[in-house]
Amino acid sequence: MASTLPGGLPAAIPDRVIGHRRGAEDLIRYALVVLFAAVLYLFVLYPLLQVIWRSLLANDGTFVGWANYRRYFGTPAIAQSIVNSLFVSVVSMAITVALAFVYAYGLTRSRMPGRGLLRLVAMLPLFAPSLVQALAFIYVFGNNGIVTRTTGLNVGIYGAKGIVLAEVFYCFPHAVLILVAALSATDARLYDAARTLGAGPLKTFLTVTLPGVKFGLVSACFVVFTLVITDFGAPKAIGGKFSVMATEIYNQVSGQQNFTMGATVSVVLLIPAVLAFLVDRVVQRRRYALVTSASQPLVPARRPAADWGCFAYCALVAGAIAAMYLAIGAYSLVTRWPYNFTPTLRHYRFDTVGGYAPLWNSVYVAALTSVVGTVLTFVGAYVVEKCRTAASGPLYLLSVLPVSIPGMVLGLAYIFTFNAAGSPLNALYGTLAILIVSNVIHYFTVGFLTATTALRQMDAEFENVSASLGVPFYRTFWRVTVPMALPSIVAISMYFFLNAMVTLSAVVFLVAPGTELAAVAVLLMDDAGDTAQAAAMSVCIVGIGLAVRLGYWALMRGVHRRTQAWREPREAPTGSPTGAP
Amino acid sequence: MSAPAPSRPAAVALQGIAKKFGQFVALRDVSLSISPGEFVCFLGPSGCGKTTLLRIIAGLERQNAGQVLMAGRDVSGLAPSLRNYGIVFQSYALFPNLTVARNVAYGLETRGTPRARVESRVDELLALVGLAAHKAKYPAQLSGGEQQRIALARALAPSPALLLLDEPLSALDARVRQSLRHEIRALQRRLGVTTIMVTHDQEEALAMADRIVVMNHGVVEQVGTPFEVYTRPRSPFVARFVGQMNFLEATACERAGWARMGGVEMRHGGTAPFAAGTRLTLAIRPEEILVGAAAEGRENRLLTRIRVIQFLGPFTRLSLALPDGSPPLECDVAATAFAALGAAEGSQLALSLRPDALRVFPAAG
C-alpha cells in the first residue's frame, strides 16, 4: 500500500499479458480451432450467404437488388404463403402445447396406471417423417379414407385443417419431452409450504406449478412453432392447394426451376425461425435454478379421481397416436385400402423406387450422420469450451445458428454452394456425403448444446491438473472427458441417427440418382399414387427407428454399468423415492 | 527458516507481478521470495488477489507485468506443463471415472516410467497419506477428507519441486479441517517440498505457515512469520484480518508515546513520532486487556460497564461500554479468571490497556 500512495498514481500496467511460448500442444489446439472454424464456415456460413446473395440476383445472374422481394410480396398467390405459414404455425403451436402440457402433467404429477407405456406411445411420432403423420390422416379422413368411405362423411382434410392435425401429432412428442423435463424439475418443499399456508389445489397450481414450468412452456412453444413453420413433409402431402413457405420454396425450385425466387422465400422464412430462436434465448437467459442440491423430489400423492381423469385423457391421446400408426401399418398390409382388405406383402416390394436401395441408403446415411455428427459436435463443443481463444465466441454463435435454418433453406443453400459451375466443391454434389453433411449441419445445434452442457458440468480444473502433471490435454480428453460424457455422447449419436432417418426437408433437394433416401421415397411414391408402398416404406422407417432406439437403450444400460460405476453413491441409498422410469 | 541461504536461489521469486482483468487491477507490483522447503500462506479476504497470484505462479493465469522465477530460472514464458509443480484445487478435481490408484498414477504414466515403478510409487504415496486400503475405490466412494488426501498424493506423485494448494481445506467440515492441517504440515516437513497455500482462514494460516503473506486489494500488506503478523501487524487491515482487534480513536499528545482518548491520556507502544493533534487509531487484542485484580495499579486504567457476557468455553468474551460512548471494547478473560471476577452484566469493571500491547496507527482517511 505504501508503495503506491505517495504519487497517488499507480504505475501503469500494460494491457497485454506476458505470453507463453507455444508448444506442440498449442499447435494441436490451434489446428482444432482452425479446422472447426473451417467446417462451420464452409458448411454453415458460406452456404447461407449464398442464399442471401442469390435472392438479390435475377435468374440470369444479374444483380437486381430488392426486385425479387418486391415481386414476392407483390404476387398475392406467393405472398399468401407467409400468412398461411404463420397461421398454421401459431394454431398448431397453441393446440400442441396445450395437449402436451396436460399429457406431461399426467405423466409426472399423477399416479395413473401405465405411465411407462403412455410415455412410450407419445414418443412414436419421433420415429416417422412428418409426411407420415399427414399420410395417416389421409388414409383415415382423406377422399379414400376409411372413415370417409364407411360413414360417407368427408371432413375435407386437405388444406390448413389437415396440416394442423398432422403437425400437432408430429410435434407432440417434442413438446411432451420439454414439458416432462420442466414438470420433473421441482421441489416438493414448495408444495409442502403451499399446503401449510392453506393454499387449495387451484391456487397451488397457479402459484407454484405454473410459474415453475413457465420457461419450459415458453421453450415448448418456440420449438413447436419452429418445427411447424420449417416443416415441408406434412404440408406437401396434405396441404393440397394451401401453400406454405416451405412448399413454396419447393414449388419454385423443383417445379419452376426459379432458384432466385426460391432463395427469396428462403430468406423470408429464415426471419421467423431466427426470431423464434433469439426470443427463446433471451427468455431462457432469465431462467433461474429451481432445483438445488437441497431440493426434495416431488412424489405425487394418490388421488383416485384425478389419477383416473389423467388416465382417461392420456389413454385417449395415446390411443389416437397409436391408431394413426396402426392405420399406416394396416394400409401397407392390405391389397387395396379401403376396398379390399385381403392381407398381402406385395407393397413391400417397392418396385416404383427400385426396391430397398433407398432404405439401406437411409440407414447408411443415418449411421454415418450419427458418427460424424457426434464427433464434430463433441469435439467442436470441446474446442469452444476448453480451448479458449478469441474465436470461441464466434464459433459458438455459428454452432447454434443451424437450429434456425429451415431444412429447405439449407438444402437450397447447398445446391448453390455445391452445384456451382467450376467450383471444386462440386465433387460432393450428388453423393451420399453431401446428404450426411446436410444432416449433420441441420441437426448440429442440439448435439452441440448437449455436448456443451456435459462439458460445463465437469470440473474446470481437470485440464489444469493435467497440465500440472505434465499430461497433454488430448490424453485427458480421451481418458477423462470422453468417458465422463459417454451418456451424453450416446444420446447425441442417437439423436443424429433418428433425425437423419426421418428428415425430408434438408435432403429433398440433394438426393440424386443412386442416392435416394427412404423419406424421399415415401414422398415420391405418394406423389406417383403408390400410396400403399409409401405406407410400407413408412412402416420400415418407423421399424428401423424403433429397433435402433431399443438397441441404444440396451447399450446405454451397458454403458452405465461399465463406465459410470463411479457415479455410485458412497452409501447404499436408503430407499429414496426417485421414481425415474 | 525465513532467511534464504545465500548459496541457494529462492525456490520461487516474484518480481513486480501485476495483473489486470479488463480495467480491474487484481495484482499491483507484487514481489516476494520463497526459500526452498518453506511453507508460505497467501492470506486475505476474497477478491484480494491471492488465488490470482497462485495461478500466475502455476502459469494458469498470465500476468501483465513482472517475472516468476523458480530456482533461479525465469519461467514467465513457460506453459504450466513445463513448470514442475503439483497443485491441489479447492474442488480437488479428482478424475471421477478413474480409481484412486489411477488418479495418483496419472502424472506418472506419461513419463515413460515402467509400470512396476508406477505401481510402487502409487503404493508409496497412498501409504504416505494413509489411504492404501482405498486403492481400488472411486473418488465418489471416499469422504471429503480422503478425497483431499488423494488429490495431495496425485500432486506429489511426480516429485514436483513446488506444491501449490488453493484453499485445499475450505470444502471440509471443521473437525476434519483441524486434523488435515497437521497432516499436511507434517507431510510437507517430511518431504521438504516448498509449498504455497492460498487461504482466507487466518487461523489456518497461523497454524500451518512458516511465513504468511497478507494481501488486500491486490497488494501485499505484510510478510512475516505467524508470530510477527499476529503480534506486530503493520497496518490496521492486517490487525483486523488476523485475529481479533479492538480499535480506539485517539489523537497524538505533545509527549512522544502518548495519546489522548476521550478525556484520558494513554501511553502506547508506538515508536514512530506523531505531531501533536494527529488523529490516531489505537489497537489492542481482546486477550491483552487486563481486568480485575490484574489491572490494579497498572497504567492506562479505564472504568467500564459490562454490556454483554458471552460464554465461549475456554474463555469468556465481555463487551465493555466505555464512559465516553465510543464503540464497545471486546475483552477475553480466561474462564477461571472470569469466575474470580464475580462480574455480571451491567456491573462496573476496571481494566488496563497495557502500553506495550497498545499498537498505534495513523487514522485512516
**Count of β-strands of chain B:** 20
Under the CATH scheme, the architecture of the largest domain in chain A is Orthogonal Bundle
Determine the most extensive contact between two protein chains: A-B, 42 and 52 residues
Which outline of chain A best applies? globular
Reading off the top of the CATH hierarchy, the class of the largest domain in chain A is best stated as: Mainly Alpha
Strand content of chain B: 25-35%
Tell me the radius of gyration of chain B. Answer: 25 Å
The termini of chain A sit apart by 61 Å
The fold-level CATH name of the largest domain in chain A is MetI-like fold
What is the count of distinct domains of chain A? 2
Helix content of chain B: 10-25%
Key features?
heterodimer; A: 581 residues; mainly alpha; MetI-like fold; 2 domains; two-stranded antiparallel sheet; 22 helices; disordered N terminus; disordered C terminus; B: 365 residues; alpha+beta; Rossmann fold; OB fold (Dihydrolipoamide Acetyltransferase, E2P); six-stranded mixed beta sheet; five-stranded antiparallel beta sheet; 9 helices; elongated
Mind explaining what this structure looks like?
The complex is a heterodimer of chains A (581) and B (365). Chain A is mostly helical. Chain A has helices at 24-54, 67-74, 76-109, 115-122, 130-141, 146-151, 160-184, 188-196, 201-230, 233-238, 245-255, 259-285, 304-333, 357-386, 392-400, 407-418, 432-442, 444-456, 462-468, 473-502, 518-527, 531-563, and strands at residues 334-336, 340-343. Chain A folds into 2 domains: 25-54 and 352-565, MetI-like (MetI-like fold), CATH 1.10.3720.10; 61-287 and 304-344, MetI-like (MetI-like fold). Chain A is 67% helix and 1% strand. In chain A, strands 1-2 form a two-stranded antiparallel ribbon. In chain A, β1 (334-336) and β2 (340-343) form a beta hairpin. In chain A, α3 (76-109) packs across α13 (304-333) and α5 packs across α13 (304-333). The radius of gyration of chain A is 26 Å and the shape is globular. Chain B is an alpha+beta fold and 365 residues long. Chain B has 2 domains: 12-241, Rossmann fold, CATH 3.40.50.300; 246-356, OB fold (Dihydrolipoamide Acetyltransferase, E2P), CATH 2.40.50.100. Chain B is built from 9 helices and 20 strands. A 6-stranded mixed beta sheet of chain B has the order 6-7-8-3-9-10, with helices on both faces. Chain B has a 5-stranded antiparallel beta sheet with strand order 13-12-11-14-20. In chain B, α3 packs across α4. The longest helix of chain B is centred in the middle third of the chain and has 18 residues, at 174-191. Chain B is elongated and about 75 Å long. At the A-B interface, α19 and α20 of A face β1, β2 and β6 of B.
